[in-house]
């Protein structure tokens, strides 16, 4: 069977796409010629065994690796519709981080109030009007399904919220910046099953507005919430497909071994 071009598998418009993308931590060649299409307003899951490069790929999308000397990108990550290469040195990483937000494994609210956490990005951008901030904070908290729980305690410290609430607050903080893409790095691994279910529901809702890329160790979660799945191994993208097809009829033996738990 001839190799299929991954982008042709996607039926929606592309929001982004990596092309012959490589990443190096100094001498460590962590990502190798990755061609990953990211469908607009869909959920794309990155799965694969520990150390295969999922987080490295995710973090490349908002130029997190720029913060460390010795790291090197090669190839392209095209962002559409502008069609810019977001890892080009000519592109400002700060601008990219405003357009592409990230939610981490462990909730990481700032040591500030609930209100300030959500308003932070807007304030950094110079928005000072209290009425605009209030409106945007409410909208983002509603979008993150947290408004009803916190509307009477917006001036409480964010640390007083439960773990699941803190993670929804971090999602609200990401939403408040009106991002085009949200990157989720194992967002439920520190949460109990109920909080996990509410984050999964939330992801299904916010994908109506925002493109989502998510790293997960949990294959059931990938199968439940994603539209497309990319299976990675040793820095390579082994197989990309529609989630309903990849989990039922994987084309590659490595993918099949991984999803059936026979990996070793
Ligand atoms: N800061 C770093 N410096 C050097 N090598 C790194 C660094 N971070 C990750 N690596 C290496 O890059 C490779 C990919 O790591 P990465 O964290 O992206 O994998 P992962 O699939 O997300 O793993 P996990 O599921 O365990 O989080 C691994 O070999 C890892 O050891």
Explained architecture:
α6 runs parallel beside α7. A hairpin with a 2-residue loop joins β10 and β11. The protein is globular, with a radius of gyration of 19 Å. The model has no long low-confidence stretch (mean pLDDT 94). The chain is 34% helix and 25% strand. It contains 10 helices and 11 strands. The strands form 2 sheets. Strands 7-8-9-4-10-11 form a 6-stranded mixed beta sheet, sandwiched between helices. It has a domain at 14-108 and 179-260: P-loop containing nucleotide triphosphate hydrolases (Rossmann fold). The protein is α/β, with parallel strands linked by helices. The protein binds adenosine-5'-triphosphate. Adenosine-5'-triphosphate is lined by residues 25, 28, 30, 48, 50-56. InterPro entries: AAA+_ATPase (IPR003593), ABC_transporter-like_ATP-bd (IPR003439), ABC_transporter-like_CS (IPR017871), P-loop_NTPase (IPR027417), PstB-like (IPR005670). It holds the Pfam family ABC_tran. Keywords: ATP-binding, Nucleotide-binding, Phosphate transport, Transport. Residues 16-259 form the ABC transporter domain. One of its GO terms (biological process) is phosphate ion transmembrane transport.
Specify the CATH architecture of the domain at 14-108 and 179-260.
3-Layer(aba) Sandwich
Structure class: alpha/beta
Question: Topology as H/E string?
Answer: EEEEHEEHEHHHHEHEHEEHH
CATH classification, class level of the domain at 14-108 and 179-260: Alpha Beta
